[in-house]
Structure formats: structure tokens, C-alpha cells
Amino acid sequence: MDQLALKAIERIAGQARAPYHCIAVDRLTPIIGAEVSGVDLSQPLSDEQLAEVRRAFLENHVLVFRDQHLTVEQHKAFGRLFGELRALPVEDIDGDDPELVVIRANAQSRFVAGETWHTDGTADLEPSMGSMLYVKETPAIGTGGDTLFANMHLAVEMLSPTMQQFLGELTAIHDGEIPWKGFQPPANLPKTEHPVVVRHPETGRKTLFVNSGFTSHIVQLSGGESQMLLNMLFDLIAREPILSCRVRWAPNTLVFWDNRCTQHHAVWDYFPHSRYGERVTILGKQPKS
């Protein structure tokens, strides 16, 4: 590993963190992810608990809450502590709740969502702030269906200053039709131009904001140049394990991740077994460089 990458890792892994008093936070890796215990999400959080969950979220980017027993309304109430929930168009919902996305796979499934590295909804003008997936059913074999999460702050910080400066001058198109390749996409899917490198609106840190799930091309480059550069960035995310943590699901697990600075990848290694979860998405703001 080169010195630029080591220094970037040291800045994150070597950073002192204040202790928690109302919740317990156990980091999954020094770079990304933490399991949070000592809090019942079915009950109202105290101001102190909420403040510490917020801090843990900004420090770790992915939070795992296990053994939670939530109704749909309790799930949504926890999401609303962080912002307004995104409502899907009526024609896109599975059920009768536009704020709830059902995530399911079984023996009849021929594909599942999220099998590539991506960030949720980046084709929107105002992509989501975060997502909360509450998994109720996991594969009968007792394992499988893990989700990988990658830290996009570190993805930028591992690059040379020259490359960071170059990327900071570029914008890219995010196209909502890309995940539908090979299928008939719904009408009126969004297509939006965003900076390649953006600033996290709460921490001010740079984050890489292109992903293989939605990014089609870089505006300022030729087609060939754009593809080469995007391939380099996508390859960094796919091949560099330092960037990532792996979350193993169990029934009644809720995971809350920051779409402003992470990507994730669902692992479909449990076919033909079943998995079922429900997701709410928290509205965000237009990314700024």
C-alpha cells in the first residue's frame, strides 16, 4: 500500500473519539461501520440518546441495531428523527404505504436490487440523506445475504492531491435508467448532473460521488476518457477491502447508512432461500462541491 493511502487511513483510524455514555458503540472496522446497543428503537429516544446516535452516525457512517422489534410506524418514527421520509410515486409502491420500500427475494426471484456497488437514488436532484433497512426474515440456512458498505471519504483521500484536484473540477451524469438495463424502465426516471467530488453537508469532508449503479459519464471528458476514469474509480471501490465493512443480517436487525458518503453492495448468495425487509429513505439536499 502506498504512503498516500496509509496516511489517509491513519487520519481516520488514529483519530481519538469521545466516549459514549447513553449507548454502546462497537466499531466493525476502524474505517466504517459500528454496532449500536443499549437502545430500544421501539421507544422514544431521550435527547441524550439521539445526540449520541447522531454522533455515531457521522463518525461511522453505517450503524447496525440488532434485536429490534418494530412496527412499521415505529420504524418510520425513528427515520423521521433524521428528516422527512421520501414518498414513492403510487405506481412504484409495493403495498399501500408510499414511504415504505419492500425488499424481498425468494425462489421465484430472477434478480435482486443492489447487486452492484451503488448509492441509493443519486439520479435524483436531491439524493437521499440516508436509508434505514429493517430485515425481518433472513435465509433459512442461517447465513447469506450480507451487505458490504464502503467509505467514500477514504476513497477520495487515498488519491493523490493532483487527482483530487482534477476530480474536483468535474461533474457527472447520474441516470435512473441504468439499473433497469435489460428491462423496461418505468416512465420519467430522473437524470441529473452532480459534482464528482462533493462535500458532506454536516462534516464538510470531501466524498467521492460517482457509482457504477447510476453514473453514466463525466460531462467534461470524451466518452473514452470518461469510461477510463470511471473504471479506475469503480475498480478502487471494488478491489480495495480497506474501504469496506461487511454486515451480516439476522432477523430484527435495522441498519442505518449515510448515502452522502457511502456505497453498498448486496450479496445474493442465498438463492433459492428467502429474505424480507422494509426500508425507509430520508430526504437529502442537492450535493455541493
From TrEMBL:
By its UniProt entry, which InterPro entries does this protein fall under? AtsK-like, TauD-like_sf, TauD/TfdA-like
Q: Which SUPFAM superfamilies match?
A: Clavaminate synthase-like
Q: Name one GO molecular function term.
A: taurine dioxygenase activity
Any one GO cellular component localisation term in the record: cytoplasm
Q: Which UniProt keywords apply?
A: Dioxygenase, Iron, Metal-binding, Oxidoreductase
Q: Which family does it belong to?
A: Belongs to the TfdA dioxygenase family.
Protein name, UniProt field: Taurine dioxygenase
Give the organism's phylogenetic lineage.
Answer: Bacteria, Pseudomonadati, Pseudomonadota, Gammaproteobacteria, Pseudomonadales
